[in-house]
Amino acid sequence: MARGVMLMSGGIDSPVAMHYLLRQGHELLAVHMDNRPFTDDSPLSKVVDHLTILRERYHQPIRLYVVPHGSTQVTLMRETDRHVGCVLCRRFMWRSAERVAEREGATFLVTGEALGQVASQTLSNMRSATASVHLPIVRPLIGLDKQEIEAVARSIGTYEISTRPGVCCQAVPDKPATRSNLVQILREEERLDVEQIIDDCVRKAVIL
Amino acid sequence: MYRTLRVCSSGGGFEALPEPPRPVDLARIRAALEEAHVPVLDARVMLIATLEVEVTISRAGRLLFKTADPAMADRAFGRLRPLLEGGALGGGPAGHD
After folding, report:
1. For a surface tag, which of A40, B7, B28, B71 has the fewest beta carbons within 10 Å of its beta carbon?
2. Interface contact flag, A165 B10, Cβ < 8 Å
3. By CB neighbour count within 10 A (0-12 exposed, 13-18 middle, 19+ buried), where does A72 fall?
């Protein structure tokens, strides 16, 4: 079986996506993009608790990389067009996950994305976001609706963790673009030293 | 301008909104916070200040207090409110981690 890197947000979807792949026998590492100070401690604590359940269920160690993302968010807010902030944020998340994958010898990336739930999950925004990486991306939940995902989350014991109170990410723009094009996104990124930002973040990651 | 403090939609903090909606001068707010030695992060479209609790101040004037403790949120709101409404920051202890 293959080794992959899973982006874990603390939400309902990502532990369910991880469950599907672990069930098939794949080996996974987890990456959590730590958005503090734009959120509180709750997303990270949820991810830790999700992994406790999944590690026990599937008898895998599932190493967790906690990658600081707050300073990247500040840079994006200061230097780029807010309307495409979600897409730009996702591109940095993907790149960080891919960098971890390269370090760990993983050959694919995984996300709990479904289609159309939030601004970053429209087809055009997904395309713009994932154009930032080269590894294949697996989306186990793409064909499921919200009710189906929640039912699985309840059955594996992660739903209650995911729905604990917390502070939503404050970095989300008031009016995020639901459509983007890559030319526009690349133009925004020209203002940034992308490689330096990724290097700094992954270097500062805490491994749990 | 600000009427009430209420639990935010995801339940992990408290928020206050200006009524009627009214953008705030983040530069003025930042200067006043810094003068009071309150740690503040300027992300251009919002400020994150550390009073008794950490609070996000958006350009639109929305305040989000990152605490589940209503008394703590209320104290921090009480300090910030005069500043947001055109006056000075209310008295209280400096921010801490």
Report:
1. B71
2. yes
3. buried
